[in-house]
């Protein structure tokens, strides 16, 4: 899955768990008072002789018992003041609505805590009181801990997302390849192709020095948020959209059906293409001139022509590996072919003549 998907879910979860804040705060207060109570009892035991059969020991032991009973009454009263009824419904919603972020540990610990608190409050047998008290405090502590862990995970996602600029930024170029492929090799291959395209365009219209930065890279459906030379990124956008528009138009309906049905075998079958003459490199030149009208590039220069040829090779590879792509939140290509790889030889029928 993509980091942005986690970011969106974390944002929703962060809002929805706010309903637990008051209860968690009250429970934290209970745990704090329990810690203080245990410390007070410990000090009392250490400072008083509560062993033996003499009167001071008996009185000290009796006072400990009174303190414990008094604290248990206070604890019961504080727990009864917390209404857990509505939260059970919210817990159920968390299970249904969140798939990427693990909420199970919190929801399970919360339900166990509610059950344990109920047992503690209903108990009238003093012989069970000590065990029920200990188990209740333990269950409350566990639920608080899981809540804090969940909050920590949410904050971690926010911090990572902020560091990597997951939030929208109109000055960057965002490319999402819609093929589901979580492999590291494919991630690196796609990054390399995009970087090649940038470097070629940058050597033509940019300063050739400012490197492309992958500000955010995600696997799954590969998403790259790119920053670099402004002119280069501005030119890349129409070059990419043109490439996806023109190659997508080459496929006949018959070819699309054949690929979708997985009846194609690369060595034995050919994809039927609509015959069109397209001067791809000439179109690249037109787009560059259109985007940067005051450029002084000599497109007749052989070095520039070689770069345009190399650009075509890399754009063709990007399309062949990823027939469907999302650029700045707009989809291009053939969505029905998004999980396929198109052999480059089937794209070679597109003419790439030089500009006249």
From TrEMBL:
Protein name in UniProt: Uncharacterized protein
Organism whose genome encodes this protein: Clostridium gallinarum
